Amino acid sequence: MSDFERPVLxxxxxxxxxxxxxxxxxxxxxxxxxxxxxxxxxxxSEPKPISSMPGVVQHTRDTLLKAVTEAAEAGIRGVMLFGIxxxxxxxxxxxxDPDGILNxxxxxxxxxxxxxxxxxxxxxxxxxxxxxxxxxxxxxxxVDNDAxxxxxxxxxxxxxxxxxxxxxxxxxxxxxxxxxxxxxxxxGHTDTGILAYGAKYASAFYGPFREAVDSSLQGDxxxxxxxxxxxxxxxxxxxxxxxxxxxxxxxxxxLAYLDVLRQVRxxxxxxxxxxxxxxxxxxxxxxxxxxWIDRExxxxxxxTAIRRAGADVILTYWATEAAGLLR
Length: 327
Ligand code: PBG
What we know:
The chain has helices at residues 18-23, 61-73, 101-113, 145-162, 176-186, 207-212, 232-243, 258-267, 278-289, 295-308, 319-326, and strands at 34-41, 48-49, 57-59, 78-84, 118-123, 166-169, 193-200, 248-252, 272-276, 313-316. With 327 residues, the chain is α/β, with parallel strands linked by helices. α2 (61-73) crosses α3 (101-113), α4 packs across α5 (176-186) and α7 (232-243) packs across α8. The protein is globular and about 80 Å long. Ligand PBG binds at residues 122, 124, 126, 134, 170, 206, 209, 221, 277-278.
């Protein structure tokens, strides 16, 4: 090679040593940016593994507290609670009942860790309905938006009375954030925040979650969750949520929607969360179990990519473990 052919610009210089790479790293990933989603099952006497999510279980009330404490000790600053009731009904009554499993679990967790961790709860009916939809149904089987809003308002107030810090409406009903905000305020819970699932897409990657909450859903959620072909619509949904009083917005799923995550991050002026969902977890776990990918680097690369795309906060089933890897 003659001299003039040699490159003058050499980006590799900034990759020469670990210290150099650390120095110029653009993206940070810290335990405090992670939220651990947890499932708690009513009446359970021992934790029950979820086969499609190796390493994740339906907790008992006791083991839930252990998991929360362990997460807090690892530096995790948020947990997202999901309840699985013993009995499901068409109205999802267990979600509104102050003695329902989710509200009981919120009280337990607050009593255990107080304000050390931000306690969040799924505000949605699908874990509690026998038909598995996120809302109540009309006589001909459609999800009834406005009737569902009334249920969400009551559910939000019940969660706030139990002490939750952030309610997380995930049902994609129109107007849900405004109705929940008004209900919280009129019940005196002005400090209870709303983490709104702003852009939430109908996704095949929720598969393992159905097992996690014993869902009996027939059909799909395409009349309320978004169409995966639409990114502008995701931005619009997030903006509507902010307008209605959302304190934070979420994009979900994460990996197949990193472009939407970036667009939402650029469009709103509140913190943005992304949910690294059950199917995304299962893909990595399954490939790693087969020896096809190197598990720990794959986990960290996944979470880093979600941060790089614009997430301030990441919900991930790996939260506690990832916090350990980041130490
Ligand atoms: C609805 C809800 C779902 C998830 C979180 N909240 C399921 C759905 O919308 O179908 C999925 C989370 C995951 O897959 O990890 N309550």
